[in-house]
Amino acid sequence: MSGTEPITAEEVDRLVEQIERDAGVGGYHLHPDADFVRGLVRGLAENERRYGYRSCPCRLSMGTKEADLDIICPCDYRDADLVDHGACYCALYVSADVKAGRTTVGSIPERRPPRAEREKARAGVTATPGVVGSLAFPVWRCSVCGYLCARDAPPLECPICRVGRERFARFI
């Protein structure tokens, strides 16, 4: 299928089902408005077709996976936004209170730092003073959920939020 053909309703339905299933397994909730969710998921599908990965449809993609790792859905900012605002930036993921209708989604500020700051942070390694020498393996951190593991290389998939190995960064 070429990138110029429109995303079909069936493709959107399948992707909504997959995202909803994955969200449920991780203890997350999708926005209660099904049409709103379908619109966001269509944007994810279009970005996946356009770039090869599902970048957030509410943010400007740089067009390369490496530059956009932090905004591949689920984005690195999802959990912090859920805690602070009851929804992620695009409001695909929401808190249990929003899902149940006890709270509404308001404006969610952008957490994504400017590109130069992201590149600088990606180049650095966060370490705890005095600990590095005592570890047998490097520690890897999932940039989405914060899961930590000590091993030679990051896992192929985060056991908590199920994102791929490329979303891990060396922590120590």
What can you tell me about this protein's structure?
- The chain is mainly α.
- Helix content is 35%, strand content 8%.
- It is built from 6 helices and 5 strands; from the N terminus they run H-E-H-H-H-E-H-H-E-E-E.
- Strands 4-3-5 form a 3-stranded antiparallel β-sheet, with no helix packed on it.
- Helix 1 packs across helix 2.
- The longest helix is centred in the N-terminal third of the chain and has 18 residues, at 34-51.
- It starts with 8 loop residues before the first helix and ends with a strand.
Q: Report the CATH C-level class of the largest domain.
A: Alpha Beta
Q: Main beta sheet: strand number and arrangement?
A: 3 strands, antiparallel
Shape: globular
- Rg (C-alpha, Å): 17 Å
Strand order of the largest sheet: 4-3-5
Number of helices: 6
CATH architectural category of the largest domain: Alpha-Beta Complex
Do you know the CATH topology of the largest domain?
A: Ferredoxin Thioredoxin Reductase
